Amino acid sequence: MLGHIQRRRVVFFDLDGTLHKQDIFGSFIIYLLINYPLNIIVLLLLLPVIALGLVIKGFSARFPMSLLLWSLTVGRNEHLSSIIEKEFVKLFKSHIKIFPIVQKELINYLNDDTDVWIITGSPQKLVEDIYCDFPFFKRVNLIASVMERRWGGLVLKTRCLGYEKVIQLEKKIGAPLKLYSGYSDSKKDDPLLVFCQKRWRVTPCGILKKI
Asked: Transmembrane stretches, by residue range (predicted)?
């Protein structure tokens, strides 16, 4: 009897550059730079450490990007930080460019009783606030980077990029991974895409190309 039980299909979607065009975390950093220029002084003081961390550990590393985020948010209490995040979310939602072809694929999977995972390097709180009005969002599983308050500013508790996506998904559904399909705009997601039977690359215009 157990041998006839089929495992549910699992598919994975990246978010930034895949379901929509813009990068949430990158846009948040730019928003902070433009609207809170006094923190640039802190950033300049820490820039050598941030740059060295990026050179040694790479762009996907948590520490240098966490330090960058902290330098641009330090000095504000939790209430003010919450206001800043809400202002950013409102602005981002007004300019978001959804890729309808990719979103239709995601919705089709949901309607076909498939487990859909959105796995992104953008912070979970920002993703949830931006996508809360999308009807499909409550039906998907989300793995994202996590921001938290520490030392008077925001830091990244986790940064979900590259092979870290594999690690985080294994924690949720177990290893070895066996995914039906995967969608991403970036080669940084190749460590996860290798576990997918079908692999799709999303172009900058939101078109799907089979890998």
From this structure: 28-56
